[in-house]
Amino acid sequence: MARPVMTAGMALGLLILGAAAMGISPVFVRQAEVGPFASAFWRVFAALPLLALWAMVERRGQRRRSAAGRMPVDPRVLGLAGLFFAGDLAFWHLAIVHTTIANATFFACLAPLWVALLSRMTIGEAVGRRTWVGLLICVPGAGLLILQSSTGAGSLLGDSFGLATSLFFGLYFLAVRKARGGLGAGTTTLVSSLVTAAILLPIALYSGEELLPATSTGAMNIAALGLVSHAGGQGLLSIALGVLSASFSSLVIFVEAVAAALFAWVFAGETPQPAQIAGGCIILIGIFVARPRRTIPASSRRVRDDATGVSGR
């Protein structure tokens, strides 16, 4: 039986679902009954059993198929992916503490800029003109969506932490894209998550925060944070990165911001302002401009359009 073909359109759909799964994470974090660093650790750790099952099923399926076309992956790439995601979460929480949430979120949304700037020199993947245009449309849209909600002034230190967040998340995209050239999405997400959890645990312990939730409600939100936002969100992102370029996939950050605003409206009663609605619409226009032009088989590694990357990785 022929292996099902993953097209760029299908990957884009999974990318949007992954953005929604990551965008709902603030709802779970607010109800987790633990500190921010502890919630970052639990987000990754709680997902490990499901990711381990996924990787096991994935490995069995790969044994039945020819491994031809798979490139060997340097284990250090997976280690770096885990390190970069740990840096992303750690600096994100530092930014929230030292600047406004709006500023922290906006600077974190600049990850696609780092991906576009570093893509060619790190993983040899060119960034197409359509992706650049879409990115330049999305950035001001993110400004309208996020900064409109600001109720205070930021700080240079906190804003710097937010910028560091975006750098680490951008590097995470590049590392996962590189790993997906030779590994399945389940294995990539599992191994990188193990590294992330190992780094975040001592950080959470050293912070002195409450590590365990006080009630079953908090425990359920931690479980949802791991299963939905990490296993679901990062897992779907990893699947998409096997087909779509890192630069286009990183635009999921902007989709996540739109999803987060929608979930805040639904679950927290935070009604979006007209400028925020306009910002969200601008982001969606930018994604539409940068979208893949046509579907591409997952087995293909050659340049076909602006969003599908390059061959030989």
From TrEMBL:
Membrane-crossing residue ranges in chain numbering: 39-57, 77-95, 101-119, 131-150, 156-176, 183-205, 235-268, 274-292
Entry-linked SUPFAM superfamilies: Multidrug resistance efflux transporter EmrE
Keyword presence, 4Fe-4S: no
Keyword Cytoplasm among record annotations: no
Domain spans labelled EamA: 12-146, 157-289
Keywords: Membrane, Transmembrane, Transmembrane helix
Cellular-component GO terms for this entry: membrane
Name of protein: EamA family transporter
Organism of provenance: Jiella pacifica
